């Protein structure tokens, strides 16, 4: 096992670390001190961007350190203004409770100890908070922080302005009750993390080994957060919102320019193994060795081996050299959540036309002549050709048009199921 300084050095080799508040304190952190990251329950699920932080806690945990996922039951009611152009809509209590319950389960699935920061505030009144916390912070200093200064021009409510005080108080409470000494967060959280250090130094003592470490945000070639889809939506960790197959495909299609960063930061394997994989990838990038390794490891760590094996199998058959006959009805059920699905009409030709999979009979004949239309894994070479309706339990038909366009036709309604 590595000591804390060695773990952080490993983080640095992976290009994870952005800023360390006090490098000299790295040697003072032992496995007696706790380390935490906060997660505000702004949705019913965490997303891939959150996972870039979770993997850091997992690495620390595997080296014997106490790690905590702090659920923002209180801070989630306020909203973090850091580097946002507008104020987030306040969540209703029932929304917040639903989000908290789901995110708590997700954090616990990674074996993290979860603490709801609402527990720190439920018996604290506003006067006590202002006397204990508010008087320790200078407004001019708070206004000078980039996370706040960048929002002033767009308008900033006092509610959001006070967010940094709550995050500081969280750190103080965790230090007092759980001996937590280190807070990790994205580079956009630096101002909030430092506020916690300031409060601890005043309220506990300056010798307490409190430390703040920010991590680099992963962005794509265009400067967008890599955890977003091309349409701007989030990639959720909840498999009912983003299926393992969708996540696998997203990672599999990352450009070569992103692979070293993503593999080093998201894959939990040791760097020695990772370097070997990256070297093989660079020898022939057309084989997508790095992308396949990234997708397999990350989806396996999030959803388990069975899910990633299924995603890999489906991807291999749809886009590789696999056979459609190797898919089963369960695979088609999963695909039906990721592909366009149409109802079966009176016959396959009518279905192709009604669904607009082909735009006209003329286009249909062109696809047939070119051999670029497949139905249930067999080339469709004639309008009179009989298809195997029973391949997927008599409920699905898999259609491939061209090289990468797949559609599912369901026969359930037609069969009266």
From TrEMBL:
Query: Does the record carry DNA-binding as a key word?
Result: no
Q: Which GO terms describe its biological process?
A: tyrosyl-tRNA aminoacylation
Q: Which GO terms describe its cellular component?
A: cytosol
Q: Which GO terms describe its molecular function?
A: ATP binding; RNA binding; tyrosine-tRNA ligase activity
Question: Which CDD domains does the record associate with it?
Answer: TyrRS_core (cd00805)
Which Gene3D superfamilies does this one have?
HUPs (3.40.50.620), RNA-binding S4 domain (3.10.290.10), Tyrosyl-Transfer RNA Synthetase (1.10.240.10)
Tyrosine--tRNA ligase SYY-like C-terminal domain boundaries: 345-409
Top-rank lineage group of the source organism: Bacteria
Report any Pfam family annotated for this entry.
tRNA-synt_1b
Task: Name the EC number(s).
Answer: 6.1.1.1
| Known catalytic reactions | tRNA(Tyr) + L-tyrosine + ATP = L-tyrosyl-tRNA(Tyr) + AMP + diphosphate + H(+)
**Record text on subunit structure and interactions:** Homodimer.
- Family statement drawn from the similarity comment of this UniProt entry: Belongs to the class-I aminoacyl-tRNA synthetase family. TyrS type 1 subfamily.
Briefly, what is this protein's role?
A: Catalyzes the attachment of tyrosine to tRNA(Tyr) in a two-step reaction: tyrosine is first activated by ATP to form Tyr-AMP and then transferred to the acceptor end of tRNA(Tyr).
- Annotated protein name in UniProt: Tyrosine--tRNA ligase
Gene that encodes the chain = tyrS
């Amino acid at each position: 096992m590595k000591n804390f300084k060695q773990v952080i050095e490993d983080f640095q080799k992976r290009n994870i670390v952005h800023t360390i508040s006090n490098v000299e304190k790295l040697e003072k952190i032992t496995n007696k001190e706790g380390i935490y990251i906060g997660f505000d329950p702004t949705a019913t699920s965490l997303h891939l961007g959150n996972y870039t932080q979770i993997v850091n806690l997992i690495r620390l945990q595997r080296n014997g350190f106490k790690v905590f996922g702090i659920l923002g039951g209180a801070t989630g009611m306020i909203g973090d203004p850091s580097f946002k152009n507008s104020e987030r809509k306040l969540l209703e209590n029932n929304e917040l409770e639903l989000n908290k319950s789901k995110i708590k389960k997700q954090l616990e699935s990674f074996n993290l100890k979860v603490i709801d920061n609402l527990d720190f505030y439920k018996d604290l009144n506003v006067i006590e908070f202002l006397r204990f916390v508010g008087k320790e912070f200078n407004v001019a200093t708070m206004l000078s922080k980039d996370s706040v200064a960048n929002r002033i021009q767009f308008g900033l409510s006092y509610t959001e302005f006070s967010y940094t005080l709550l995050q500081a108080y969280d750190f103080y409470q965790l230090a007092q009750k759980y001996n937590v000494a280190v807070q990790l967060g994205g580079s956009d959280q630096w101002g909030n993390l430092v506020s916690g250090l300031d409060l601890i130094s005043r309220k506990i003592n300056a010798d307490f080994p409190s430390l703040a470490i920010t991590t680099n945000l992963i962005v794509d070639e265009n400067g967008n957060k890599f955890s977003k889809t091309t349409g701007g939506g989030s990639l959720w960790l909840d498999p009912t919102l983003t299926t393992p197959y969708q996540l696998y495909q997203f990672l599999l299609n990352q450009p070569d320019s992103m692979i070293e960063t993503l593999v080093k930061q998201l894959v939990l394997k040791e760097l020695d193994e990772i370097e070997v994989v990256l070297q093989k990838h660079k020898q022939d990038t057309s084989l997508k060795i790095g992308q396949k390794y990234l997708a397999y490891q990350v989806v396996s760590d999030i959803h388990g081996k069975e899910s990633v094996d299924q995603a890999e199998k489906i991807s291999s058959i749809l886009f590789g050299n696999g056979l459609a006959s190797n898919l089963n009805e369960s695979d088609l059920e999963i695909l039906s959540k990721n592909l366009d699905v149409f109802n079966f009409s009176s016959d396959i030709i009518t279905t192709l036309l009604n669904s607009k999979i082909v735009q006209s009979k003329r286009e249909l004949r062109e696809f047939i002549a070119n051999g670029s239309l497949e139905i249930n894994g067999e080339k469709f070479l004639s309008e009179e050709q009989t298809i195997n309706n029973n391949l997927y339990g008599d409920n699905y038909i898999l259609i491939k048009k061209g090289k990468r366009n797949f559609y599912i036709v369901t026969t359930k309604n037609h069969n009266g199921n």
